[in-house]
Amino acid sequence: MLTRISITFMMAMALVALPLNADHHNEETNLHKAAQVSSLMDRVESNALDMRQQAARLRSYNRTPQMFSWEVHADELNRIRVGLNNVAGLVDELEPMKPYMTFRQAAALNHLVSLSATMSDVTEEAIGIVNTEREKLRAAHPDYDKNVDALYNHADLIAVHADGVEAWADFIEQLSDASDD
After folding, report:
1. Do residues 41 and 98 lie in contact, with contact meaning Cβ atoms separated by under 8 Å?
2. pTM passes above 0.85
3. Which of these, 44, 66, 118, 134, could form a disulfide with 70 (CB 3.0-4.6 Å)?
4. Strand, helix or coil for residue 138
5. How many Å from the N-terminal Cα to the C-terminal Cα in the chain?
6. CB 80 within 8 Å of CB 123
């Protein structure tokens, strides 16, 4: 009889241990996914900072338009386009991870998508101006100036949103660590 009880007890413990182990595995998976989200957001921020720097260069070129050819402008705009393509790829990687994101991260991702789409439109418009009005560009074309300013501002907002989400995630992690102690 004692043997049956101990066998039954051991089987019950094994059944209880399976879900506990599964929860531990899910927790590890969730932590891994959260770390991936954080890493991808860092890469979004890095790309946005690069694009902001390229837009800042375009701004400086506009201050002395006679010193820089339209090709220099086109090169910077192409770099911004590559940065936007990189951000789009990162967003594609982030989308399936929404179930592992905090509400704030998911909201920031939605905002990043919107900002990136607008920035892409502005970039294409600026490229169109460079391609069609090369000589007027040297005379500080007003629509081009507006587009360059918009590129800078959008890249800055993308960087701020990506960084802000990570700052919030770091804060939550610190709170969690403090509550564990």
Report:
1. no
2. no
3. 134
4. coil
5. 44
6. yes
pLDDT band at 176 (very low <50, low <70, confident <90, very high): low
> In 64-141, where does DSSP find H-type helix?
70-94, 103-132, 134-137
> From CA 116, how far away is CA 110, in angstroms rounded?
10
Tell which residue, 7, 38, 180, has the closest CA to residue 104: 38
Q: Which residue has the tokens 């590129």?
A: 151
What CA–CA distance (Å, rounded) separates 47 from 59? 18
Question: pLDDT tens across 1-50, in order?
Answer: 544 444 443 443 333 333 333 344 466 677 788 888 889 999 999 999 99
Distance CA 154, CA 151 (A): 5
* Cβ atoms within 10 Å, residue 48: 28
Q: Does 83 score more than 80 pLDDT?
A: yes
Place of tokens 């403090």: 178
CB 164 within 8 A of CB 45: no
